[in-house]
Structures are given as structure tokens and as C-alpha cells.
Amino acid sequence: MTGHPVVTGEYDDAYRAGRQPWEIGGPQPALAAVVEHEVTGPKVLDAGCGSGDLAIALARRGHDVTAVDVSGVAIEAARVKAAAAGLTIRFEVQDATRLSPAEAPFDSVVDSGLLHSLPRLADVEVGDYIALLPGLVAPGGQLFVLAVSAAGGQGFGVTEEFLRESFPAPAWASTRIEETTVAAEPGDEKLSFPAFLLRAVRAAS
């Protein structure tokens, strides 16, 4: 499934231009303990995988990983990385607002920076993505969302109120939101932005 042509082109061009600020050579520091201790499997979805660093870290933990991104350029880079690491990961080009991976539902879904990017893209409805998530997480499965805070002054991001309203009962249970940071590396700089890490459990149907 291909993505919206405007969005796909924007991200393909960005990845062709070189390493992106959100590509820091591994998972975001805020997700390190999540990957190590909290993600349950076997089946895990990396939603908005970029060039594959988080998907690779999850696969190294023994998970059966499916990873999707709207950019075919990013997906090809991710496949090359995974092959070099000797890992088998399903990489697919998919639009976040129309996700339909054949392996769904998943025991865990991890969104590292996808949700906060959607509201600023032309013709993309973030609500369409959020509405798909209950069908992607198996009952009793876990959702992890790392999103930049709107308080960071970057012109995009989410609020805690938005997250709580987007993942309510009865579809979601045990929802927790903590303040954290997102790392970025534009050029030789190392930056940090305020963010939220949401954990939620898919309630039993």
C-alpha cells in the first residue's frame, strides 16, 4: 500500500538528501528501557520506522518485527541495514492513515515520532491513524507512543490532554503518560526536545 503522494514525496526527498535529524543511530533514549524490558512479543509493529534503527533493536531482542513507513527510500535503507545485521524484519511501505499489515494484530506497537508528525502534513488526518490503532494491538497488548511536546516551540507536537483524549477507555486501559525528551542530531549538533511517552494496554474486547 502506497502513501499519500504529497507526503510520500516529501519524505522520500528528505531521505534522499541524507541522514535526517531524527535518525540518531539507534532507538530514542526515552525508548531504551521500553525496548529492553517492556515490549512484549512475539509480534511487534514499528509504526513509522524510518531507516530502521528501532526495528533492528527490537529484532535483536528476538521479536518478530514488522516495520512500516510512508517513504520507500527509508524502507530500502532499512532493508539494507537489517541485511547487514543479519536480521529478518518485514519492511513495508504503508500510509499511517491506512495501515493494514497482514500480521495484525500485534502484541506490541511502538510509535517513535510518527504521531506528532501527522498533524503538520498536508491532507493527513491524524484521527484516521489513531482510529486504526485499536485494531492493530491485540487485546492485552501494549502501545507505546513517543511524541514531541507542543510546549517545545517547534511549531508541531502534541499536548498531554490530546494524548489522553486520543487513547480513552474502554478501548484502552492502564494508560500512563510521562514527560521525557526526544533527541535530534541536525548536522553535528545534539539537541533535545520536551516530549511525552505514552503507555497503554489494549482492553479486552
Explain the overall architecture.
- By secondary structure, the protein is an alpha/beta fold.
- It has one domain (5-202): Vaccinia Virus protein VP39 (Rossmann fold, 3-Layer(aba) Sandwich).
- Helix content is 28%, strand content 29%.
- It contains 6 helices and 7 strands.
- A 7-stranded mixed β-sheet has the order 3-2-1-4-5-7-6, sandwiched between helices.
- Strand 6 (172-184) and strand 7 form a beta hairpin.
- The radius of gyration is 16 Å and the shape is globular.
* Strands in their spatial order, largest beta sheet: 3-2-1-4-5-7-6
The percent of residues in helical segments reads: 25-40%
- For the record, the count of structural domains works out to 1
Q: Average pLDDT value?
A: 91
Enter the CATH topology name.
Answer: Rossmann fold
Low-confidence stretches: 1-6
Instruction: Classify the beta-strand content into a percent band.
Output: 25-35%
What is the molecular shape?
Answer: globular
Largest sheet: 7 strands, mixed
Number of helices: 6
H and E string: HHEHEHEEHEHEE
Distance between the termini: 28 Å
Instruction: Please give the CATH class.
Output: Alpha Beta
Please identify the structural class as seen in this structure.
alpha/beta
According to CATH, the homologous superfamily is Vaccinia Virus protein VP39
Key traits:
205 residues; alpha/beta; Rossmann fold; seven-stranded mixed sheet; globular
